Amino acid sequence: MNKLKQRWGIDSNFQLTIIFIVFAITGSASAWLSKPFCFWLGITKEDLGYWFTPIRLILIFPIYQVLLVLIGFLFGQFKFFWSFEKKMLKRMGLGFLFND
């Protein structure tokens, strides 16, 4: 845990616990929200067959990104999750979205 705290620039175990809680809530919430979102878009397993799961995962990704920052903000960890988000998107080749 100390290596993770050092890598993320975190001082306390409490802050690390809060960050883990935010990741857990965000993952569960984005998976939960993807079902009504797919329904709203008219995407069903019957129509897409084996393609349903990959398409649903692709749809979960932007939902997860937004929720991560939002839930991080609600738990008082906006600064950490905003920098985490920017770093991740830059690694994915989407760094042009941010003016640093």
From TrEMBL:
<protein>
    <submittedName>
        <fullName>Diacylglyceryl transferase</fullName>
    </submittedName>
</protein>
<feature type="transmembrane region" description="Helical">
    <location>
        <begin position="12"/>
        <end position="34"/>
    </location>
</feature>
<keyword id="KW-0472">Membrane</keyword>
<keyword id="KW-0808">Transferase</keyword>
<keyword id="KW-0812">Transmembrane</keyword>
<dbReference type="InterPro" id="IPR046714">
    <property type="entry name" value="DUF6787"/>
</dbReference>
<dbReference type="Pfam" id="PF20584">
    <property type="entry name" value="DUF6787"/>
</dbReference>
<feature type="transmembrane region" description="Helical">
    <location>
        <begin position="54"/>
        <end position="82"/>
    </location>
</feature>
<feature type="domain" description="DUF6787">
    <location>
        <begin position="18"/>
        <end position="96"/>
    </location>
</feature>
<dbReference type="GO" id="GO:0016740">
    <property type="term" value="F:transferase activity"/>
</dbReference>
<keyword id="KW-1133">Transmembrane helix</keyword>
